[in-house]
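Worked example 2:
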Amino acid sequence: MARIALKLAYVGTGYRGWQTQLDGQGLQDDLELALATIALEPVRVVCAGRTDADVHALSQVVHFDTEAVRPLRAWVKGVNRCLAEHYEQVRRGGFGRMMVREAEETKASFHARFSAIARTYYYVIYNDRDWHPHWIDRSGFYYRPLSLEAMKEAASHLIGRHDFSSFRAAQCQATSPVRSVHAITINAYRPLILVKVKADGFLHHMIRNMVGALLAIGCGDEPPIRMRHWLKATERSLLPPTFAAGGLYFAGADYAPDALSFPTVSGMNEIFPAGCLVSATLDD
């Protein structure tokens, strides 16, 4: 029995999230079908971070166990071929795409979810009077002018170990609302604003609720200190609405240095081409 780790990237548009669904509309459903085709046996996968409906991933790590003996390229090119065929035959319009980027055999002790020591997400805000068609479903649109200075000041109140009940969805199944947020960075590449959050873990809708709160402060409706008050209140109903799913990207998970040979956290260059970063106006 071999344990294989894969790194995936996907556009989550149209899917009902990562987790397998009764109607087969989860990303996990498509991946397990493709893996079973190559392995010639049923395959179950475990991922580093379950993403919601319409949320994307740049470096989603999964692992699975199999009796099948295959060259590593089969778990990349062969699975990608099966995913492409399934997309053309079943998914087509309205759905995003998924591809395997890396594969390797790991130690039996490696676990995509429980071996992770931190996780990182990006949120892309399209901040202009009108949305651009290339960024629909790939960003959250907000037309009012935003102050990055106010948003950064507000975000500083979220750093550290806190009870994030104010930022969790009502249907969140986590046993504890306490999480440690290691870092939040906010930069603008006009008209795009990129929010990066790194933590030991996240609650359901936690980042989308954080972004909704940051927007209310960035546009001037609330002062930056309000973020601290919202956090301490531990009451979700006091905060602005949850922001759109399409702007959220799972960047990846951190593991011990000897866990995997391939990089497991993607940089923002996988969202913004290098030329875009060079030519854009950067607001610090």
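The first helix runs from residue 27 to 39. The CA atoms of residues 211 and 243 lie 6 Å apart.
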